[in-house]
């Protein structure tokens, strides 16, 4: 692992525990075990560090979505949604303290938005990917033809975001089992609104 990676690891820890406003380049450098001068060889300022952490140290959703989209008809719809929900919950729980930092500065939020546009990325991409997956499953008859898949995608990610907010607000530390149970309950309820009438209840 090189200097830049070690600085990003330290920055991710500092930002999660102190927030963007209180974090300083000095504290990040100290946690990483380097001087501020070494830090500035890799990053122009604290904003650049935050953007790098967001893009390189946050749990990523796209990979999982690509797996789902690339394999419509594999596994079960309910099982696939449960796996995605679990990843999304982890993403929002871990990322919430960092994501909220974006709104501490209009300039920072604008820079982040522009960077995502360059990458053809953004919070809408995960939902669009899930909609695409669900529509493919509709074509296969594994989801009701009349189901509103955009609404279903919004509900899933909205619930996962809310879970991330709740965990960070309360300071709770759910176990893996508790998170898995929550994801399973969430997708069970969602799947009941999506499954074809002819599908047996054990599906998923």
TrEMBL record:
Residues 24-43 bind DNA. Residues 1-61 form the HTH tetR-type domain. The keyword DNA-binding applies. Keywords: DNA-binding, Transcription, Transcription regulation. The keyword Protein biosynthesis does not apply. Coiled coil: none annotated. It comes from the Bacteria. It holds the Pfam family TetR_N. This is AcrR family transcriptional regulator. It comes from Kribbella aluminosa.
């Amino acid at each position: 692992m090189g200097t830049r990676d070690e600085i990003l690891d330290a920055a991710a820890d500092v930002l999660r525990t102190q927030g963007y406003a209180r974090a300083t380049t000095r504290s990040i450098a100290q946690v990483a075990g380097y001087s501020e001068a070494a830090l500035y060889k890799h990053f122009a300022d604290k904003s650049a560090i935050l953007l790098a952490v967001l893009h390189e140290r946050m749990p990523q959703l796209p990979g999982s979505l690509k797996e789902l989209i690339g394999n419509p008809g594999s596994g079960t719809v309910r099982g696939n949604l449960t796996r995605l929900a679990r990843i999304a919950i982890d993403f929002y729980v871990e990322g919430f303290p960092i994501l909220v930092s974006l709104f501490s500065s209009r300039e920072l939020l604008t820079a982040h938005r522009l960077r995502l546009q360059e990458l053809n990325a953004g919070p809408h991409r995960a939902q669009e990917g899930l909609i695409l997956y669900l529509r493919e499953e509709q074509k296969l008859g594994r989801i009701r033809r009349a189901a509103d898949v955009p609404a279903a995608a919004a509900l899933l990610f909205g619930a996962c975001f809310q879970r991330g907010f709740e965990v960070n607000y309360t300071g709770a530390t759910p176990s893996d089992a508790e998170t898995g149970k929550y994801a399973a309950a969430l997708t069970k309820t969602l799947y009941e609104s999506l499954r074809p009438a002819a599908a047996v209840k054990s599906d998923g």
